[in-house]
Amino acid sequence: MADGISLLRSPLILGNKTAAQVTEDVCTPLDRGPGIAWWFAIAVSLSMFTLGVLAVIYQLFTGIGTWGLNNTVGWAFDITNFVFWIGIGHAGTLISAILFLFRQRWRTSVNRSAEAMTIFAVICAGIFPIIHMGRPWLAFWVIPYPNFRGPLWINFRSPLVWDMFAIGTYFTISLVFWYVGLIPDFATLRDRAVSKVKKTLYGFFSFGWDGSTKTWQRYETVYLLLAGLATPLVVSVHTIVSWDFATSVIPGWHTTIFPPYFVAGAVFSGFAMVLTLMIIARSVLHFEEYITLHHIESMSKIIIATGGIVAMAYMTELFVSFYSGNEYERFAFVNRMLGPYAWAYWIMVSCNVVTPQFLWFRKIRRNVALVFILSILINVGMWFERFVIITISLTRDYLPASWDNYAPTLVELATLIGSFGLFFTLFLILARFLPMIAIGEVKGVLSYGRKGIHVAGEEAGGTKSIKTPVQLGSGVQGGTP
Amino acid sequence: MKQTNVITLLLLVGLGFTALTLIQAFSQSYALPGNNIGYEPVQPIAYSHRLHAGELGIDCKFCHTGAEISRTAGIPSANVCMDCHRFVTAPFNQVRAEDEAAVKEQRKPRRIVSPELQKLYTALGLNAELQRDPKAKETRITWVRVHLLPDFAYFDHRAHVSASLDCQTCHGEVQTMERVRQVSDLTMGWCVNCHRSSNALGVKGKPVKASTDCVTCHY
Amino acid sequence: MSHATTERHAEKSRLMSDFHLNTAESSADHDTVASSFDRREFLRLAGFTFAGVALTGCEQARVEKAIPYLIKPEEITPGKAYWYASTCAGCNAGCGILVKNRDGRPIKIEGNPDHPISCGGLCAIGQAQLLGLYDSQRLANPMINGAPTDWQTLDQKLMDRLKEIRTGNKAVRLLSGSLTSPTALALVKRFLASFKDGKHVIYDPVSRSGILEAHERTHGIRVLPRYRFERADVIVGVEADFLGTWISPVEFTAAYRSGRTLEGDPPQCSYHVQIESRLSLTGGRADKRYAISPSDRVSLLKGLLSLLEGKTTRAKPGESSHMLFLNELADRLRSARGESLVVCGSNDVASQMLTNAINEVLGNYGKTLDVQSPSYQHQSNDKALEDLLADLRGEKIGALFIHGVNPVYDLPGGKEIGELLAGVPLVVSFAERIDETAHRAAFVCPEPHPLSSWSDTEAVAGVVSLTQPTIAPLENTRALTESLSAWLGKPSSVLGLIREEWRTTVFSRQTMEKNFQSFWNQSVHDGFAVVAARQHRKGAFDSRSARNVVSTAAQGERFELVLYPKVSMGDGRHAHNAWLQEVPDPITKVTWDNYAIISDVAANNLRLASGDIIRLTVADADPAVTLEVPVWIQPGQPDSVVSVALGYGRKGTERFAKIGPQWLEGKPSVGPDGLVGVNAAPALQLLDGQLLYERQGVRIEKTGRQQALACTQTYQSIDTPPLLAQGTEARRPLIRYATLAAYAANPSAGSGPEHKSQSMWPEQHEYKGARWGMIVDLNACTGCAACVVSCQAENNIPVVGKDEVLRNRELHWIRIDRYFVDHDGDLDVAHQPMMCQHCDNAPCETVCPVLATVHSEEGLNQQVYNRCVGTRYCANNCPYKIRRFNWFDYAHDDAKQNMVLNPDVTVRSRGIMEKCSLCVQRILEQKIEAKKNGKAVADGAIKTACQQSCPAQAIVFGDMNDPASLVKKKMADRRSFNILAELETRPSVGYMTMVRNRSEQTGETSHG
Question: What is the model's pLDDT at position A65?
Fold first, then answer.
């Protein structure tokens, strides 16, 4: 779509919104007191979260033994969840950064919540590497810092150390990126706010934003730069996470295709999660006109693409294991398909390979309910992918005498539930206090697919922010056409 | 506009300065666990290393017999003290004074027992004639340990003594201390650095092999 | 560590102080106990304090007190270890031991290399005696009617009662296990002689009476022969688990091993046939194993005998495989007259008589088995026992003294015996704890633990060993001899009694030393003395005796029950020992329970799976006996036989209910009845003078209940499951195997051409000084698990409990992998001790984020506990899976028990990784000593715990950079190989091919 505006295009935002309406639509849910639905949702997710917290506290005081791990299987639920959540995060960065650079304007109405999702997902993910340690209170030892031990440094050869750096960077960048994106909208909220408290708070966060052209210009530049910074992270983070396994000697882990495989999988699962959340949000917050079927469709398309890559990766894995002629390698994969955990493998395949294929059909892509179900299935599938790779490979490696099975304990299940609880809690809080849609950016695409519109805008944050789509994100000085 | 900037700048500099000084002050009192440098506990018997090791120049290993043959140098048992203190029961000057007094008063000199040594005798259950008193009960002398390593760090005196290392290298100038004080911080870094330098420079010109493997101390 | 105890543990210190006074004012003993707590505490709290520091800036230092001796014994230096020669009392074998004593308390037991019986080895039970010493359940005082008292009052009361008995001329019996102590025997004789009708009745829970009985009948002499496996070229074991549990396993293992060293040309290797009704440790090693059901045994022996006597003609080809087997066996035996040995483990006199006849025909007497200077390890007489029981029923007994046995528990009809005891006017027990029998005794006169008292032993004629105390008594106990002498009216110390006995009976039998004192000193120093054996004259062989033996027939389709002693549990006298409870059985790998072993065929017929609880009903017993035990399905088990281990279900094992970590899903280590395992003794049969361990006509019913069995190995075979073996090598090249023929032709048969592959590792490790390495000879290893317990004792490895084992979280640093390998019809059991392989290119080292596991300058893979944060990445990345994780705080709070801890090894806390360190503390000790004396460490000076205790000397440790070292030579041997060499991990631990004496030319080589 590099070529400007085409009359043939259907508008991104329906219902001939004016800028004012946009602001109204996005901000009213915030002014309005929380609805019964919200209270219900937060109640559920909070209790899930509490359950998780209790489980973790119990585990911290009793020992990792409260997990189902054993001498053979040293990682299972913990690292599975970690990789899963990191994966979820990726869609956010991809949407906000890569799609931005590719000038995918439809991203505007989803990027805000997608980015939020990234941050929350990384928070969820970040918890696991810490609590999975035998002595989590010493987690800070993986950070290189001057000490009285000789000094004693960390092992820079260890992928876990790389993880620490990768995830740290990822989190920071994502957070900054998201916040910068929020600034104009904070301004909008500030200007609309009636209560003193809100005014000052939003005021503080809006960084004294005056919608002046110069501000906008700087803003655009920063945003562009950050997008540039964030883009490599989409690839790097999950690549490094995959090295946790790729650099090992365990058959089923020791695989060179892991980096692309993991990244694709991450984006795949990420978009599934975005869909899940968006579909809920649009119906609860009545954003049907902003998050249109068009959005859902284009995300579905990305899912098909990435899902394809994932399926390809699965097949490559199998082929390589067969072609390598390494009996342990072969066994590892035969064992996945036919061994005691075959069910997990086949859940994974059916969810990640079969499910996306439905999205080839326009009818299904445009059927919100179906897409919703599919998206959830894909998330289940991706969780199992990580379980299959991490746990099953460990259960049966080289010496048959040390083979053993793994079953999660209640504590582990509770921890998993808790991480979802945390995720949704954070998301719901966001939905209460911040605009779920990037007002400023959406206004920018109002005209998209619509001829000669004249948007009369009075309110601050918005008016000056209306620019032609070409200018949006191009970093060129803005102004009303 | 300009003015405010300047003010802010000054403020910032001032802040930074205070912060630094505070940290400086703070870091003085800052010690990691196990680093009890300067630890100087009161002992049950005011035994003076200055007197014994310093003035009288008794060799460390005369009392700390374990140093050459065992992991631990060991604290001398009471019978070792008695080797001398069966006869020496009080500072010389006091004894001499008593003798002179006795000569003046034409009487047998009384045995003078210093209060600190009395503790030793009571512990051993000795009577005034320093004979074992069957009725008296023996009591343990519980010294307070000065040089204390964490339980996961093993130190072996044999290895260091046989490398002809001076006790003072780690324990400081004990012969000058009235009460023993920990002079080295005994942190891992302190150990490792000494091992490294010994490997490079040797001990007293004699080349040594001071391993820096973890298992040298941790097992 | 050695000189401190903490304020924080003042409580415990006080608790300890009585030991403290006992142990010669040595403070160090109680300090290490206490500081073991600190160590744990500290490691756990370290992190928190670190955090605390960050906040508060400074923290209060730990205050430790240091308490020196008041008057230091001349010979003791705190922190220095001393060794005392003594004798193991774990069973009757009488192995020589060296007890490592540190600051007044024993911390390790090792085999005495000079001892003529054990030759340096020590079994798991022997190793575990150490923990038994610090058992808090041992009686602290003598008891009268269940109330603690002191010896004076007890003697008083008891002697009054004895006076009555003497006046009343009542019968007095002393019931004991086999007594190998000359002093004790003499005193018992003297004591019983002081009564009009006093008899000494001897029985062993695992009785060998049949052998003695048989010899009485065939050779007219009631002895247990001394078996000389080292002199036998052809060994036939009939139900005799002589490498595991039979008579003197350590002695026999060493002897057996010496016949199979594969040295010389052609390589020297005895031929071993095992005929048995359950897969025993010995059967697993056999060159030819032949499974029979007990009822076939007699006929089989008869068949063999008549073949050897040439009475029956040789079998034609095409005859039953049974006959062919017998013929081949007969040929083998004939070819080795006087150099063969047939041993029978059954207590059935008939079988034993046939065995004697066979050995007689082969002319083995005086060569491979010796009845002139026999063994005294078993003197049991089941006939006398039967009479005693009769007398008890007839209420003819006035006083019964019970020593070293537990009839209420370990005899059939124990319940009845218990009731009978109530009818005896005076019952005196010498039990060390209130066991099933002792709590029915009016007087309990506890004996001290063998490690804390004097004793002597003549286990085999001519070898007298001494037991000397290695710690001041922890309880107010008294040796049997001392008690008896007191009751005889001339009280004397046990030492005095022994010296007296030795002066009179032992000293006279030797010629080396002229004066007794120097002889005595020498004997105490060595722990034993070799003297002239008392000669026993054997009568002429009575050939008729063996003739009229009638062979039994199996009863229909019902099962035959075999009751056997387990390698780690024996007759159950050590059932209170947590170490032994957690030792995986060498064959089944199950810990913490006994179970009914059945074959998979039987299991299919009865629709049983391992863990299903079955009800065994012994029909022909009255009252009918039933046992409810879980099933274990076992290859090599005859379809008609069910085997159950003795020695379980002991009173007092309730203590293990809470031995493991207590948490949400944690389960106790005891069964539903609160005990560990089930007592199978009621199913024994005491029938016309024989204690029988085999029952016919046993019914099996399914109860529908289940009980998980804690097996340390979830997958049993070396072959991957057929379904999953698609396109891959079914048999993994982990155990290398060759037949003797193949090996003779090509010494590297089996170990194959070394796997050449590209390494992605830089050549980075060059070792200037020593490079430590170890090699394990799979051909010698019997899997007896002595190394496992030895390692546990040396390295402070805690017991984790059944539930944790079920979760595959056992902490043993040595895991003996046991694979069932089918070599063209022969079921071989391959044992492969797996400890840290100390790889040059260690996968664990690269992945640890905090450098908690790194390579040493001497090739050791170091694990630094205090640096570990517990990511478990190293364990995941270890292809050998030998790393062990502290999932919970496993260390125990039993202050007395913690006296067992080795002060030279850190007690690991929760959340950190641990593994085999190749006993680095021993390496350092030797290095420092060498440095002190300005010498290099001599080859063999450093012995790892596992190596030291291995009865088969299968493990060799040393410096691989020393061209003269034994380990280097073995590494160069063409039988040696590394496991998973293709991974280029370059292990410092090697293995040697397993060779079986078979003719066919098979040798499994490395794949590829």
Answer: 92
SS3 C570: strand
What is the C-alpha separation between C323 and C325, in angstroms, rounded?
5
Cβ-nearest to A134 among C810, C869, C881: C869
> Distance between CA C192 and CA C200 in Å, rounded?
7
Q: Where are the beta strands (DSSP E) in C228-344?
A: 234-238, 271-276, 288-291, 340-344
E-strand spans in C204-327?
A: 224-227, 234-238, 271-276, 288-291
Helix axis angle for C349-361 and C209-219, nearest 10°, is: 50
Please judge whether C732 and A68 are an interchain contact, meaning their C-beta atoms are less than 8 angstroms apart. no
Run of H or E residues at C375: strand C369-375
Distance separating alpha carbons of residues A469 and C307, to the nearest angstrom:
106
Find, among C249, C361, C240, the residue nearest to C289 by Cα: C240
pTM for the predicted model, two decimal places: 0.88
From chain C, pick out residues whose CB is under 8 angstroms from the CB of A335. 724
- Chain C residue numbers with beta carbons less than 8 Å from the beta carbon of B33 are 46, 49-50, 53, 59, 61
Q: Is C396 exposed, middle or buried (0-12, 13-18, 19+ CB in 10 A)?
A: middle
* A contact test, residue of B187, B194, B199, B218 with most A CBs within 10 A: B187
Q: What is A11-444's CATH number, 3.40.190.290, 1.20.1050.40, 3.30.70.100, 1.20.1630.10?
A: 1.20.1630.10
Given a contact cutoff of 8 angstroms between Cβ atoms, the answer to whether C283 and C344 are in contact is: no
Domain positions in chain A are 11-444
Residues 799-818 of C with CB under 8 A from A: 804, 807-810, 815, 817-818
Best of A167, A327, A334, A397 to disrupt the C interface by mutation (most C CBs within 10 Å)?
A327
CB contacts of B30 in chain C (<8 Å) are: 57-58
Contacts 24+ apart (CB under 8 A), A243-246: A243/A159, A243/A162, A244/A79, A244/A159, A244/A160, A244/A163, A244/C873, A245/A389, A245/A390, A245/A393
Taking contacts as CB-CB distances below 8 angstroms, the residues of chain A near C883 are: 71
Reported as a single tens digit per residue, the pLDDT across C622-645 is: 778 899 999 999 988 988 899 999
Contacts of C392 (CB under 8 A, 6+ apart): C400, C417, C420, C421, C423, C424
Taking residues A56-60, what's their average pLDDT?
A: 93
Q: What is the mean pLDDT of residues C158-182?
A: 89
Report the distance separating Cα A75 and Cα A393, nearest Å. 10
C727 touches A334 (CB < 8 A): yes
Quickly state the pLDDT bin for A463 (edges 50, 70, 90): very low
Interface pTM, i.e. ipTM: 0.86
Q: How many CB atoms lie within 10 A of CB C726?
A: 14
Neighbours of chain C (3+ CB pairs under 8 A): A, B
Question: What is the tens place of the pLDDT at every residue in A12-56?
Answer: 676 667 777 777 777 777 777 777 888 898 999 999 999 999 999
Choose from B72, B82, B139 for mutation: most chain C CBs within 10 A: B72
Contact assignment for C870 to A334 by CB distance below 8 Å:
no
A322:C885 CB<8 A: no
* Paired residues of C375 in beta bridges: C224, C460
Tokens of C524: 């105490």
Q: Chains contacting A with at least 3 CB pairs below 8 Å? A: B, C
**3 state SS of B126:** strand
Phi and psi at residue C623, in whole multiples of 5°? -70, 150
Angle between helices A258-284 and A293-324 (to 10 degrees): 160
Q: Express each pLDDT in B47-79 by its tens digit.
A: 999 999 999 999 998 999 889 889 888 899 888
Give the one of B35, B185, B189 whose C-beta lies nearest to A150's C-beta: B189
